[in-house]
Amino acid sequence: MRIAVGGIHTECSTYSPVLMTVEDFRVLRGAELLRADYFSFLEADGFEHVPLLHARAVPGGPVSRAAYDAFKTEFLERLRAALPLDGLYLAMHGAIKVDGMDDAEGDWISAARAVVGPNCPIATSYDLHGNVSQKIIDQIDIFAGYRTAPHIDTRETMVRAWSMLVQALRTGTRPGVAWAPAPLLLPGECTSTEDEPASSLYRRLPDFDQRPGILDANLMVGYVWADERRATACSVVTGSDKATASKVVEEIAASYWNERENFRFGAVTGPLEAMLDIAEEMTTRPVILADSGDNPTGGGVGDRADVLRALLARGWRDALIAGIADRPAVEACFMAGEGATLDLRLGGSLDPSSPVAEVTAIVVRLDDPGPIAERQAVVRVGGIEVVLSARRRPYHNIEDFRRLGLDPSSVRLLVVKSGYLSRELAPIANPNLMALTDGVVNQDIENLASERRQRPIFPFDRDFDFEPRARFSARWT
Fold first, then answer.
1. Measured between alpha carbons, how far is residue 264 from residues 186, 191, 192, 268, 460 in Å?
2. Cα distances (Å, whole numbers) of residue 189 to 35, 98, 418, 444
3. How do residues 89-136 score in pLDDT, each as one tens digit?
4. Rounded CA gap, 236 and 142, in Å?
5. Global pTM?
């Protein structure tokens, strides 16, 4: 049997003015996809996997229509050339915003369905911060979503979706998908699965999987920085029995709704200046400060210099900021060379509204892996070291620092553009502080511009009642 594999995966803040282009994506095509570790689980006796195209990018602003159309056109061309097919697996995210388009995943999956026809089962895997719509549900037969945030089960989730597809093809059965929207939209920083009440809610999901007629149960937090009608939390179930699936999606959605007032930030959290006051009093190291409003992995631009300015105003010493996306500054550092002293304007290179810092800096280290967009520079400004990157990117892995000759555990204060900390940084935080900074993914949720969301929805609205109602895929007959 032949299973085609592809998809598109990113997350887009509708509040960001910076459009993503083709160059922002890592694209796997054809045999390259099957060789990638990301898809290395694709092996089953009696099955041929047909690689199409998979495009993935660090979250950011909306994807330009030209970039999306280019990826979609190539994907569909490859899909048509792969026919006939027995199944299609799509590795998606669920929170893409394409400039000028609503529900890009619905558009992508609907287009794929039109090519493969009604008899080919489609399986999808999603980030739990993805947004689901009836248009999406109506095109698919199998759904699996992440169950951890921070995300440590990406591969396991993909395997769940793919395994259900393989089993369906082997047995000749056709699963169905049910879902229940819940009018609740909270940031991931309040709903981390490492903190209560999300921890308990997600621990229960495997128990639902064991119920007769249920194959896979999911709780989707949704993506709060998307001002779109489909942006909401929901439960989604893949099953073989509609009555049981109906009860389960309603139970999961109700359990999430009932906890809506109990979600809290896991880290010590507050305004930037208050967090810096705490950091100044600490004698332990490293204090890790998350610059949450400019977090690239949540869709932030990544070019703001707010925290650098605040530290300079305090005369702070022994701090490391990783990092600020500023290609012009990186290029200036490369022209000057290591050891050079130069005046730099840091920040605001992508979003003109981002704060900047005018500084005199010493170039400490240059990293040139080849492509200009991958270049990095480490500069020292007074007692502060700053990592500059030519492209938007996070610094969440220890290896990110080691590559630059930096030891994140040794500094007094480490600043990263993040919300909740990554699995590698969290264990060394001593302690972890989260600053409620400005940016296109700021945590002031209730005051976000909300022009297109369906209302009422918590916490934008509070005085309303809700009872979950199951909905089904049009394919589940």
1. 10, 7, 9, 10, 16
2. 34, 24, 10, 12
3. 999 999 999 999 999 999 999 999 999 999 999 999 999 999 999 999
4. 10
5. 0.96
